[in-house]
Amino acid sequence: MSIEHIKLSQKERENLIRLKRLTGIKNWNTLCRWAFCISLANPDKPRRSKIVSDSSLEMTWKVFGGKHHEIYTALLIHRCRQDGIELNDEKMMEQFRYHLKRGIDTLTMDREIKSIDGLHSRALEDEAT
Hints:
- It is a single chain.
- By secondary structure, this protein is mainly alpha-helical.
- Helices cover 63% and strands 5% of the residues.
- The protein has 6 helices and 2 strands; from the N terminus they run E-H-H-E-H-H-H-H.
- The longest helix has 21 residues, at 89-109.
- The chain has one domain (5-128): Orthogonal Bundle (Arc Repressor Mutant).
- It has a two-stranded antiparallel ribbon.
- The N and C termini lie far apart (30 Å).
């Protein structure tokens, strides 16, 4: 898989700014990891939508995943197989962006997330279900 560069939409950037303020998490990539994993935990396929990349917020795949970037790659591959998605670079990038967008939207709409504790509680709720 060759996701090398990720550029987000202005709306996603604004939502991440809000989440940074609420949670105190300083790094974009950390919030994006949370969002990606929240989406992967949802058993439904993410909704197909136009992928917009109109903000100044961008990162490489290795920055997104950090020292665990290979684990995030494996998680994406597993989910694509589970959803019957063809494993090629274009589809993988598309699915990653769909999951990232859904995760950011999910975290942004969750009114219980008012601090890092709210984010942690959300993760524990998902784990229990």
